[in-house]
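Progress against Task 2.4 (sequence-to-structure conversion) is shown through the following example record, which the project officer requested during the mid-term review.
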Amino acid sequence: MEKWANRKKIRESHMTEDDAADDEGAQEDMNELIETENGVLARMSDLLHYTRMSDLLHYTFIVFGADFVPLFEDLIPVFSPLLSSRQYGERQWGLYMFNDLIEFGGAPKTLQHSNVFLLAMVNALSDEYPEVRKAAAYGFGILAIKGGPDFAQTLAQALPHLVNLIGHPSARSTEESIAATEKAISAVAKILKFNSSAVDINANIRVFLNWLPIWKDTDEAPYVYGYFADLVESNNPLVLGNLAGIVYIIVEAFNKQAFDDKSDKENVRGRLVTILRSLQGNNMLEGLVNEAKLDQTQQAVLHHLLQ
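Structure tokens generated for the chain above:
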């Protein structure tokens, strides 16, 4: 130990002013690095906290439904600042918390507190982060199903923002962006199916068809293809004007494995196969397959579906 102390004194006696400055600079850099790491760890801790809280709220709403709303209302002053947080994770989880109010709290309570979250939901559709866009798009889809006529105008006003999200050049640039985009496509389908009194349905059907097929989000596929099947089965002229497109969309949905047993409770897959079989029964399918330009893999999928 004594030898080490002597060496330290010798080294310090030979240090130049530049050496001392370098040591001080390195120490400052180290301090900044430690401070940054501590800040990151603190933000991660906060995010984990809100993630767990959001999960807890979700399951509590599932169990108690609208009976949980009075307790949720007491927490709104805590949750609402998250909607405008500088941290995108907090914005995301704040939206999910209010999505639960929309889904389980009932339309009257949703309307009562809509001034807290609706503007933030609209703004979030153009958020820099796809995780936030996804949460907002999901919220508008739920609002279409649960909100009723009081939200018809709100959904009509949100529709252009959803369309812009879906049509953005980077809409399918990353996995996260794809997830947000397909949530938005499903939200449009839900608006057109469940709450369309304030929108031009025909104009939006044309746009909707151009977005298909989707296949990544198996939870939303039944809603999207369920509405698509509604249009075909009702002989909507906007859909029947492109029969080859119908064949392509259906076959590619199966080819990309857009469905799973858990989410397809309404057997949308069966409805789509029935559509293909009706075209086969009218001796139209072979020509439509050629017109749709199905490749060998897609043709094999079609053959399997019709067995």
